[in-house]
Specification:
The chain is α+β, with helices and mostly antiparallel strands and 76 residues long. Helices cover 28% and strands 39% of the residues. Bound molecules: zinc ion (ZN).
Length: 76
């Protein structure tokens, strides 16, 4: 996996994302598998992971809670 910003090698890592939804809910997703650039710390996700994140976001929108914390490794 190469960094889309600087083209250097990216190594496998895990990331936490916090997304604020339109309904005011803060969605926190932990342990997301990602690639991280050695040079610029850019985070890259594979297509599968992006799809899964979209599904989790759609699910969170229906829950109408102020704060939702999801562990990716358990949700996927
Ligand atoms: Zn980079």
């Amino acid at each position: 996996m190469k960094c889309i910003k600087c083209g250097r090698d990216a190594y496998h890592s895990r990331n936490t994302e916090a997304v604020e939804l339109e309904n005011g809910c803060l969605l926190v997703i932990r342990n997301i598998p990602c690639y991280k650039c050695r040079e610029c710390d850019e985070i890259l996700y594979t297509g599968d992971v992006v799809q899964q994140l979209e599904q989790l976001t759609a699910m969170a929108k229906r829950m109408a809670q102020e704060l939702i914390v999801v562990d990716y490794t358990r949700a996927a």
